[in-house]
Amino acid sequence: MPQQADDPFESGKPPTGPLAGIRVVDLTINVLGPVCTQILGDMGADVIKVETPEGDQNRHNGPARNAGMSAFYLIMNRNKRSVALNLKTPAGLEALMRLIDTADVFIHSMRPSAAERLGVSYEKVAARKPSIVYASAPGFRGDGPRRDAPAFDDIIQGACGLADLNRDKDGQPRYFPTVIADKFCGYVLASSVGMALFHRERNGVGQKVEVPMYETMLQFCLFEHLWEGAFGQTDAKVGYSRMLSPHRRPYRTSDGYICVLAINDIQWQRLLGAVGLAHLADDPRFADMASRMKHIDQLYAALADQLLTRTTDDWIAIFQERDVTSGPVRSLTELMSDDYLAATGFFKRYVHPSEGELVMTSNPIGFSASPPNYRFPPPRSGEHTFDVLRSVGYSEEEAARMATP
């Protein structure tokens, strides 16, 4: 991690990313929506984060130096400008609609019926702005019987099979210790918005984009785990056997743990030769992929026994020499001082106007002609209300009145 502030924010400079010139009105909270809109902002979009007068609830989630600026909020809200509006009042709702009039994309994280009650259903918004890309990520499909069922990450992890796949040593289902459904669906929503914008560029037509969390994560799980179910039998074995092997885990070495993996025949020959088990490459149980899948538990167990004989560093050196894919097991704490991440500048220090010196993660996506850049640090609640409302036709007096808490 860098020891001095990098000052990566280029306040006042134009966006350089592929979405430069696109305006996004962001009416999202929690994780999924803010992850999506930060990606869009990194890629050059002008993201207007519309908050209630009390502010995004995640402003109060976790450690903070000042009220309303928690670590949980800071890490997923850069490249946004904050506007505080009371959408329960006619004036606040009209201000939102004026912002949408100037936008290319409107994103919200409400259930369909809540959006309808507020007056921002797709039909209402598209009637006012036909070219809008209207995006949301409800828990379940909007045209299904569970359209208004509440859904958070834990609920979706359980429903789509993830918690069952992640059973502990006692056989109890467990959530993955990361908000994987929210974050993955946030990425899918961001890419879907980009595709809708591309379609509009080609055809001049706006549209509704919906990323239902349940179905999205179900497809995510079943890409490999549908297995025999792909053939349609009612008694099919569902679940990719290699993923379900109890021996598929980081291997213990004499002083720690290591990750190592081979996929095809050549890679397995290299790996088995490197660990002193070359004879197993000729064993009919392990000679080709189909045979290995039938006997994967035995193969993983034999590999685990052999890896106990040397240190992690010894094995990594051997595997690098033999071109075997491997790596150490890092803790979250160790990642903060990882040499590779330091060399690539993944963690960046910066000085926030109100919060002092902070650390953020870089956007890892590279574009040679239109790279992402960082223009706005995470905003204070309502920080840009006056300036943004003035830009959409409110008088100085009107904007000042609405910007006053």
UniProtKB/TrEMBL annotation:
InterPro entries: CoA-transferase_III_domain (IPR050483), CoA-Trfase_fam_III (IPR003673), CoA-Trfase_III_dom3_sf (IPR044855), CoA-Trfase_III_dom_1_sf (IPR023606). Keywords: Transferase. One of its GO terms (molecular function) is CoA-transferase activity. It comes from the Bacteria. The keyword Transmembrane does not apply. This is Carnitine dehydratase. It comes from Bordetella flabilis.
